[in-house]
Structure formats: C-alpha cells, structure tokens
Amino acid sequence: MSELFSNFFSGSIPMEAYLGISLIMFFAGVYGFLTRKSLLMILISIELMLNAADINFVTFNRYLYPERLEGFYFTLFTIAIAACETAVAIAIIINIYRNLNSVEVGNLDQMKE
Amino acid sequence: MAEQIIFYVLAVIITVFSILAVTSKQIIRSATYLLFVLLGTAGLYLLLGFSYLFAVQIAVYAGGIMVIFIFAILLTNRPGENVKSELPIRRLVALVTSVAGLAFCGHIIYWNVKKVIQLPLMEELTPQKLGHIMMGTDKYQYLLPFEMISILLLACIVGAIMVARRR
C-alpha cells in the first residue's frame, strides 16, 4: 500500500488509480439502480455505470496498448449508443407519465390493465 | 507534479459527486451532480491524452444528454417534491451488495491486474488519422460499426418520435 502512495506522489499516475475511480463510479451506479424508485433516477444510475465502463476502455487502451486505438473507438461508439438509449428511454418515460401521471416503478404494473 | 494534482482534484470530484448523485433527495440536484461527474470524466480523457474524446464527451454527454435529462425532469416532476426511495431494508441490502462488489473488484484490481506505472508514449492522434481509421475497411478500421451507428441513430430518432408523440 505504501508503495502505491509513494508512486502517487513521485512518478506518473498508475493504471490502478483510473480503474479505482471507475470502480467507485460503477458501484455508486449499482447502488442508485437498486435503491431509487423513479425511472429517471434509474436512468441516471445507468449513465454512471456506462461512463465507468468508458473510462476502463480508454485506460486499458492507453496504458497497455498505446500503439492501437481499439479502446478509443469502443468508447466513441459507446457514447453514441448511450445517447440513443437515453433518447428512447426518455421518450418512453414521458409516454408513461402521460398515461399514469407518475414515473415511479411501483406504479408500472398498472400498465397491463 | 501538476498532473498528479489535476488527477487528485478530478478523482475527488468524481467520487464525491457520483455518490451524491445517487443519494440526493431531489432529482434535479441529482442530475446536476451527474453533470459534474461527466465533466470530471471528460477531464480524465484529456489527462490520458485523448482530446477528441474530451470534446465528444462534453458535446454529447454534458451537452445533449443532460439537456434531455433536465427537460424530462421538469416535464415529469413537480418542483420541491422529494424522490421516494425503497424501504430501508432494501436500501441496506443494496448498500451491502455494492460495498461487497466494490471490495471484491478492488481486491482484484489491486492484486491481480498488471502494475503499470509509466504512461507509455503515444503518437499524437490527428483528426486526419482518426477519420482514416473510421472510414477504412482494413483490419483495425471501423467503417462497419460507423454505419451501424448511423442506422441505429436514425432508428432511434424515428422510435423516439413515434413513442413520445401525442395520439
């Protein structure tokens, strides 16, 4: 552990530091996904998790294979797909709000009636 | 040394605001904290040397997606109303799950991932090279995914309009 901290202050930034940040972000997303009842909050948690995955792609690309650009392009495409996913999800949420007057997960079983 | 300081600042911003984003009572605050997390991520991309990704992250995430989010929040939420959470027992279970996952993956990252300290040199990524790779059909070039993304975007625009329009 002391080796890690000494590296933090002297040399350049180790790869584990980036992975640690994305780890914290990912599990914050998991916690929010499991505890929140509003559909919009669940979507925000999903965005956090996607973002954590993006950081991992870029970090592995930069540290382990700097001559290649796979992680870079994966992240680029993931950002585009995340934008699509958010737009469709929010369209669905607005439609649900119009029908049920609320966006809470507990009310969603009224949809089948 | 400057890199370390910037990295620390970004790490603190991302950690604090991602935890605040999932625990805050009001949903609009949550969205604002998410915006700070996304900007911090953009800073990390810049620190790693991918300035194009920095621009894309700011334009698409912090620009586009956040605007949609705030728009949707203002459409579906009454101001001043708090978001309901699950029952305390379920929150406890979720907390235990995420802390256990964090500890497990942290252990793996600390002990099993190859230690890489030095940031290897990378040739600069010019827009020209980027475009050639995006538009080429050779190995390690990405024309097919690029076209798939365009079709996906088109389908997504049509789908979103169809779902959200008033009948």
Structure overview:
The complex is a heterodimer of chains A (113) and B (167). Helix content of chain A is 76%, strand content 0%. Chain A is mostly helical. Chain A has one domain (2-105): Helix Hairpins (Orthogonal Bundle). The longest helix of chain B has 26 residues, at 51-76. With 167 residues, chain B is an all-alpha fold. Chain B has helices at 2-23, 27-48, 51-76, 88-112, 127-135, 143-164. The chains are: A mainly alpha (113), B mainly alpha (167). At the A-B interface, helix 1, helix 2, helix 3 and helix 4 of A face helix 1, helix 2, helix 3, helix 4 and helix 6 of B.
Number of domains of chain A: 1
Give start-end ranges of low-pLDDT stretches of chain B: none
Major β-sheet annotation of chain B:
none
Number of strands of chain B: 0
Please, what is the average pLDDT of chain A?
A: 87
Fraction of residues in H or I helices of chain A = over 70%
Low-confidence stretches of chain A: none
> Helical stretch count of chain A?
4
The CATH C-level name of chain A is: Mainly Alpha
Largest sheet of chain A: none
Please state the second-level CATH architecture of chain A.
Orthogonal Bundle
Anisotropy-based shape of chain A:
elongated
Number of domains of chain B: 2
Shape of chain B: globular
The percentage helix of chain B is over 70%
CATH top-level class of the largest domain in chain B: Mainly Alpha
List the helices and strands of chain B in order. HHHHHH
